[in-house]
Amino acid sequence: DVQLVQSGGGLVQPGRSLRLSCATSGFTFDDYAMHWVRQSPGKGLEWVSGIRWDSGVIGYADSVKGRFTISRDNAKKSLFLQMSSLRPEDTAFYYCAKGDSGGSSHEFDYWGQGTLVTVSS
Amino acid sequence: DIQMTQSPSTLSASVGDRVTITCRASQTIGDWLAWYQQKPGKAPKLLIYRASTLESGVPSRFSGSGSGTDFTLTISSLQPDDFATYYCQQYYSYWTFGQGTKVEIK
């Protein structure tokens, strides 16, 4: 079975950093693109960042560009999101999601359980 | 950026009802559209991709249609397990979600 298990959320002060992790199993990790999606409490879904199977193509939403860095370790079948210069508006549940292909146009067929990031002093 | 607009935002319906949710893209996206179901406290679940292809394991009462800019998700006979929030997502250019449609009990 495909599994995406997230870790690393929590409470952090504005301006500080936090790293999210997503450990995967049940599929050939290095065949697929991976993504981060967030959801502010009670709000809708926002794509945050995505990375191609080989890390050769990376994209970010304008709202996080220059502050967040996505990466992956294919040997460890894991996805990461390094979040820096955090703002209160970054408060959200963060989900990792598996793309349904290694390339560009694809939907997200499996999701992690979500982890809450709260940015507050 | 491509904007996705869903309607209605909230829909009240009864078990057995036929339910239709619409999603409009701000520019043509071909059939690069997916639909997701999300229940409170849970991650979204993929229902339909490429506008009309049912994901494996999803009940056949769910169907999708449309291309270009206008899309619909239809639930042919609403079941108790279907009360949830539904999101469309375009993946023609990056990824954008609609604002969601909450299907609640009438």
Provide an overview of this structure.
The complex is a heterodimer of chains A (121) and B (106). By secondary structure, chain A is an all-beta fold. Chain A is built from no helices and 11 strands. Chain A has strands spanning 3-7, 10-12, 18-25, 34-39, 45-51, 58-60, 68-73, 78-83, 92-99, 108-111, 115-119. In chain A, strands 2, 4, 5, 6, 9, 10 and 11 form a 7-stranded mixed β-sheet that branches. In chain A, a hairpin with a 5-residue loop joins strand 4 (34-39) and strand 5. Chain A is globular. Chain B has 106 residues and is mainly β. Chain B is 0% helix and 50% strand. Chain B has strands at residues 4-7, 10-13, 19-25, 33-38, 45-49, 53-54, 62-67, 70-75, 85-90, 96-97, 101-105. In chain B, strands 2, 4, 5, 6, 9, 10 and 11 form a 7-stranded mixed β-sheet that branches. Chain B is globular, with a radius of gyration of 13 Å. In chain B, 36% of the residues are buried. At the A-B interface, strand 5 and strand 10 of A face strand 4, strand 5 and strand 10 of B.
Main beta sheet of chain A: 7 strands, mixed
Overall helicity of chain B? under 10%
Structural class of chain A: mainly beta
> Average pLDDT across residues of chain B?
97
Give a brief description.
In chain A, strands 2, 4, 5, 6, 9, 10 and 11 form a 7-stranded mixed sheet that branches. Chain A has a 4-stranded antiparallel sheet with strand order 1-3-8-7, with no helix packed on it. With 121 residues, chain A is mostly beta strands. Chain A has strands at 3-7, 10-12, 18-25, 34-39, 45-51, 58-60, 68-73, 78-83, 92-99, 108-111, 115-119.
